[in-house]
Amino acid sequence: MSTRTPLMAGNWKMNLNHLEAIAHVQKLAFALTDKDYDAVEVAVLVPFTDLRSVQTLVDGDKLKIKYGAQDLSAHDSGAYTGEISGAMLSKLKCSYVAVGHSERRQYHAETDEVCNAKVKAAFQHGLTPILCVGEELEVREAGNAVAHTLTQVEGGLKDVPAEQAETIVIAYEPVWAIGTGKVCGAEDAQEVCAAIRGKLAELYSQELADKVRIQYGGSVKGGNVAEIMAQADIDGALVGGASLDADEFVKIIRFRDQ
Ligand SMILES: O=C(CO)COP(=O)(O)O
C-alpha cells in the first residue's frame, strides 16, 4: 500500500479575481470536513493577484486548504519586469507553485532548461514545485508519449539533489487532454505515470521514487476521477476547468465516494 497522501490541486489558470477568489475558497472551505482533509491534501493554484486575499482568508479562518501560484521567476530579484519571485511567493506562505505547465511551455516558450531553473528557484525558497509534463497529440500518435515525457522529467530535475527531489510533485498532463473533455484512458495515464516513477528510481533511488506524488491532469471531473485514482502510480489530480466549480471540485476531492 502506498503511503503517499493524494494531492488534489485546482489550477484556476487566468480565472477569478481576488473577490471571486475569496467567495470560491469560502465555498470550498464550507463544504470540506476534517474527514476530507485527513484523506486528501487540497490545494488551489491561483492567479498572483488572488494570493494575498487567499492567504488572509486561510490564515484568518485557519483553513486546511493549501495554496500557491501557477508560475514563478527563475530569478530571485532584479530587473525582470512583470515577474514574481519565489521569495515573494514564500513570503505569502504559498506551499506550491506550478512549473512548466504546458500553457507556459506553449505560449511563453518555456524550455526544460527554464523549467529546471524554476524548479531550483522554488526549492530555494521553500516552495514545493508541481512540475508539469506531458506530450502533444502528434507525439502520442507517433508512439513517443513516454519518451517525450521522461525527457521533460529528466530536464526539469537536472542537478536537483535527492533531498529536494523527494518532495517534488510531478503532474502528468497530456496536452491533448487539457480543456478538451478528452480524458486520457486511465491505463494509458498509468503507463506514463509508472514510467515517470521508473525514471525517478533510475535518477535517484526506488525509495525516493516511491515517495514522490505523481498527479494526472487533463479533463478530470467528478465522473472520471475514481477510475484515474484507482491506478497504482497516480497520486492525485491537477484540475483545471472543474476546479472552478466548487461542487465539482469537492466531488473530485471525495473521489472515493464517486
Ligand atoms: O491544465 C490542466 C490543469 O493544470 C487541466 O485542465 P482541465 O482540467 O481544464 O482539462
UniProtKB/TrEMBL annotation:
Presence of the UniProt keyword Isomerase in the record: yes
Pathway: Carbohydrate biosynthesis; gluconeogenesis; Carbohydrate degradation; glycolysis; D-glyceraldehyde 3-phosphate from glycerone phosphate: step 1/1
Broad class of the protein's primary localization: cytoplasm
Active site: 101, 173
GO molecular function ontology, one term from the record: triose-phosphate isomerase activity
Reactions that this protein is recorded to catalyse: D-glyceraldehyde 3-phosphate = dihydroxyacetone phosphate
Location(s), subcellular: Cytoplasm
Cross-referenced SUPFAM superfamilies: Triosephosphate isomerase (TIM)
Keywords associated with the record: Cytoplasm, Gluconeogenesis, Glycolysis, Isomerase
Binding residue positions for substrate: 11-13, 179, 219, 240-241
Pfam families: TIM (PF00121)
EC numbers, comma separated: 5.3.1.1
Cited CDD domains: TIM
Record's function text: Involved in the gluconeogenesis. Catalyzes stereospecifically the conversion of dihydroxyacetone phosphate (DHAP) to D-glyceraldehyde-3-phosphate (G3P).
Family note: Belongs to the triosephosphate isomerase family.
Subunit structure: Homodimer.
Protein name: Triosephosphate isomerase
Gene symbol of the encoding locus: tpiA
